[in-house]
Design a protein that fits this description.
There is one protein chain. By secondary structure, this protein is mainly α. The chain has a domain of 182 residues: hpI Integrase, Chain A, CATH 1.10.443.10. A three-stranded antiparallel sheet has the order 1-2-3, with no helix packed on it. A two-stranded antiparallel sheet has the order 4-5. Strand 1 and strand 2 form a beta hairpin. Helix 9 runs antiparallel to helix 10. The longest helix has 18 residues. The protein starts with a helix and ends with a helix.
């Protein structure tokens, strides 16, 4: 079937108009805004080509998985970094930037500049993690001092973002993938269609560095008997609805609660109440 001449003409006119407008966009945020609009329309029109949302798929570590993961980590620096993610729910970008100046050694308070909200928050470092941190500082005192106080200083010869003194996020993600594979837990649930024509689809892994944050938030929720307000503050989320998407429930827990909620005894009791 041939193309509609009118539509082709409108398309060419739109392209010409866009090209004539581009030189007038002198600021980065203007170009970024145009890109965002085009990308949004692309996803809206071709949403059927996007990978399915993972729904109830647990993107966080289970207790057994997190033990298997830490068991294979042979690098003390990465072990401590991933521990901060798994216990305090730090994002990978927040973890790599941890500085000795962020820690109050009298109160065990850690000051964090949240990536998403660009706000300053404080969290208490658990005693076992605090002890590990002190031991790590003793062993690496000179390197940390040379690296302007960054706990997770980059190794000689390793690339770092913007030539910073700390490990790059990409390096940490690559090492994370290595350890997940070493532990035999690497699972791909889908692939992502790239919007750029010259890029191949990416494999979507169930476990990523962000899964450690999922695990930390879920663990904190369980320890506080599901107190969503406290958990949201711990997660440093602006909305409790966002926090809810992080809290994972295992299949066994879900089945147990379903049975509890819809037990035969409750059904009979409800029936008697209605009948009276």
């Amino acid at each position: 079937m041939g193309s509609n001449p009118k539509k082709v003409s409108e398309y060419e006119s739109l392209i010409n108009e866009l090209y004539s407008m581009l030189p007038k966009l002198t600021h980065h945020h203007q170009m970024k805004f145009i890109k965002k609009i085009v990308h949004k329309q692309f996803l809206k029109k071709f949403a059927k080509n996007q990978p399915p949302k993972y729904g109830s798929l647990n993107k966080g570590f289970t207790e057994q998985e997190v033990q298997m993961f830490f068991r294979v980590i042979d690098n003390p620096k990465l072990r401590l970094l991933f521990s901060y993610q798994a216990q305090l729910g730090l994002r990978v970008g927040e973890a790599v930037r941890l500085n000795i100046k962020d820690i109050d050694f009298q109160t065990r308070e850690l000051t964090i500049k949240s990536e998403k909200s660009n706000t300053l928050d404080t969290l208490i470092i658990p005693i076992p993690l605090f002890r590990l941190t002190l031991e790590y500082l003793k062993r690496n005192n000179k390197q940390i001092e040379t690296s302007m106080g960054y706990l997770f200083f980059k190794e000689d010869g390793y690339y770092s973002e913007r030539n910073e003194q700390y490990l790059s996020k990409d390096y940490v993600r690559n090492r994370f993938r290595y350890y997940v594979q070493k532990a035999g837990m690497d699972k791909v649930y889908d692939s992502s269609d790239e919007t750029n024509y010259d890029r191949t689809p990416r494999s979507l892994h169930r476990l990523t560095t962000h899964s450690l944050r999922h695990y930390a938030i879920t663990s904190f929720s369980r320890q506080t008997n599901g107190n969503i307000i406290l958990t949201s503050k711990f997660a440093r989320h602006r909305s409790t609805q966002v926090t809810m998407t992080y809290i994972s429930t295992s299949k066994q827990e879900l089945c147990k609660e379903i049975d509890k909620a819809f037990s035969l005894e409750q059904a009979e009791l409800l029936k008697r109440k209605i009948s009276t």
